[in-house]
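The protein record filed here.
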Amino acid sequence: MPHVIVKLAAGKSDAQKELTAAIVRETAGILDYGVDAVSVSLEELTATDWFEQVYEPDIRGKWSTLTKQPGYEPPLPFADRKD
């Protein structure tokens, strides 16, 4: 019984939140489960929360050597980026 957690920027429309239905359908199909066996939660985060709860833990967990490189500066949270 898989549970999928989707963390995304706050302020998504109801139409965009239909992503959960697509994830349920695809997960159930790929794993050969009924759709009732799959659950999905959406966690809407602010830019600060994203950086603190998603980006920083990932960097510390998987890419800790990157942050130790001379001159390394973490990227700006998504709300502050220009790209």
